Fold this sequence. Notes:
Elements: E1 7-9, H1 29-34, H2 37-51, E2 55-59, E3 65-68, E4 71-74, H3 82-93, H4 95-104, E5 106-114, E6 117-126, E7 129-137, H5 151-158, E8 163-168, H6 175-189, E9 193-198, E10 211-216, H7 224-231, E11 238-241, H8 247-258, E12 262-267, H9 272-281, H10 288-298, E13 299-309, E14 316-324, H11 327-335, H12 338-347, H13 356-365, H14 371-377, H15 381-388
Parallel strand pairs: 1-5, 8-12, 8-13, 9-10, 9-11, 11-12
Antiparallel strand pairs: 2-3, 2-7, 3-4, 5-6, 6-7, 13-14
Helix pairs in contact: 3-4, 5-6, 7-8, 9-12, 10-11, 11-12, 13-14, 13-15, 14-15
Amino acid sequence: MEATVGRARAAPPVSEHQRDPDQPAPDSPAARRTLTPRHQIEAWLAEMVSAGASDLILRASGRPSVRVDGRIRFLPGSVPGPGPLLEVLEGVMGSERMDVWRARGSVDAALHLDGLGRFRLNAYKQMGEPAVVLRRIADEAPKLEELHLPATELAELAARRRGLVLVTGVAGSGKSTTLAAMIQHQNERVERHVITMEDPVELLFREQRCVISQREIGTDCEGFQEGLRHALRQSPDVILIGEMRDAETVSSALDASETGHLVMSTLHTVNAPQTVDRILSFFPATQHEQVRGRLADNLAGILSQRLVPAATGSGLLPAFELLVSSPQVRELLADGATAELARVIERGGEKGQISFNRCLRGLVADGRVKLEDALGASDRPDELILALRGITPSHMRPAGAPRPPRPGGDSLRLLGGE
């Protein structure tokens, strides 16, 4: 059974010469008043797709809005009230998921609309009333080369036969898209059995050289931990876990890696050191040494990403940090020197280590991102300014290396700016 929860057919557009002159235009206030709540929501979804928006935000009796290039824009009209909106959600998600919504205050699902595509939705409560956010899901898996990410390094991680690969970032930073591209890279090149566990299933893969089993939490298995336990009996080569949420999921993922599988997952963290700390926080302090040792043995790489406005004013570009396992990284993980990981990445002396500032410096130098936006995205904006001026911070220079002269003598002025 397809892991979608609702299906509707969008009405085809009507040209001006076909429209009854006595009927209101479809985008007029009069037409919006005659639409049923479900058809009104579908009309907003059509506007969302047309505008290239990433999200549609609807709150009972509130203003409908979309997110375009990271910014909120309001749509005309008003969202149906609590009763009508609940009826729409019941019809889309079914009674079982609505029971979860009533008990927990939020629930995830997927929706397919003919002519519009596939959407991930999260229904939640705000002020005791229903609300929902719908996110557009791509129709096809992207290629690594299309994402403006370190494609060569990510392809090498995807080609591994065992290990733990993590993609991290805030909500909406493109984590699922990156993992989908890595799975697609395998799908086009190697014969593997890929098992995904998602909440909900998002992009639907078209099998090429891989067998791809997509399992939905709540529909195909009760939870990530149970799904992982059974996955090891399903002849997997690659296991994708939608999100690391607790100690049990992390332990099961490490178990799978230790038994010779490639495990890929996400975390809502902003950089590699924070990712390690978050994983450790799932466990009691008495287990931290053991978990650090397991991470040292199994971690293959961490890609952290965040989206930055493009200099053109249209669209977003990813800034990223990449940590790849190496003898030094494994030693730091085992010793608990998490803070030192940032310096290893920043120095970039080992193959595969790419810092946010190095990425942002390239985006600014190429004119693809404005300086102020790069500084806002940087964890160390002062060091980014120095790097753009050609100055290496003292803690990043090799021991004994002389301090390089400042360009232009004592002036700290950036070329072409203050």
